[in-house]
Design a protein that fits this description.
The protein is an alpha/beta fold. Helix content is 55%, strand content 10%. Strand 6 and strand 7 form a beta hairpin. The relative contact order is 0.10.
Amino acid sequence: MRSRAVFAAFAAGIVALAAAAVFAETDAAREFKRLTDELRAKQPVMGSHEYFGLLERSLGDFIKRHPKSPEAGEAHFALGRIYSSAGSPAKAIEHIDAYLKAPGEKSPDQRAQATFVLASSQIALERYDEAEKLLREVTGAGLAVDPRIVEAASGELSRVEALRRVKIGAPAAGLSGTSHQGKHVDLAKYRGKVVLIDFWAAWCAPCRMEMPNVIKTYNEFHKKGFEIIGVSLDENRTQFDNFIRENKMEWPQLFDGKGWQNGIARTYGVSAIPATFLVDRAGNIRYKNVRGPKLREAVEKLLAEK
């Protein structure tokens, strides 16, 4: 997934997959069929956050009512994928593990998809050795599974080494370039400052939603030693320029028009945005993807360190 803006559609797709399963003539199967039909019908008329809550409650309640049914396994699978997309990797792992242990036959594709979600969740938790092992299971499946799953796993494998280099506590990777204002930007020159490296794009809805909070935090703490270096994954220069002008984003932005092929994004292993790395005065990565009130708290804490 490139952005959490597609979360609601992704979640609906999960439910649709579950509903497409072959149901046995049991009470649990009939109830699960009704439930997934209802959830599919409600998705188009609900907001993403509201729909997420409905999925979480409905599927969770079904699991409690029919914990040992094969359909409970399908519900676990759906919840695992939903939590993975929503940025709750520990919960995703819990549910995918439950799915793999649940009764009922699972096809090679289903097992590969579940293993891929486990690997993605382990990556989110910075457990790179575990993630690499799981991804190699998927890529080693060969012709037994959908080649798209294998291709996705191969792509994640190529990111693992980059992610190891930018884990929390590690020195931030070198970053330099010419800003949209025509000035040279070099992360090494920011030593002694607290720096947010912000990967974003004007077309990214979650980026736009978070940007007022980023702007507010910058305005509050900039004079106290807080800086931001934006890295745009836009390809459309006009759209990029209009957004930063309309939102009065005063910090330097690095734009090369290459979108997902941006070299800095590849160095930092970025595969979804918004993605942020908060760097302390000593140049070490201390936080990743802190947003909302947590961003302000983290910046204030790092500024207080000497």
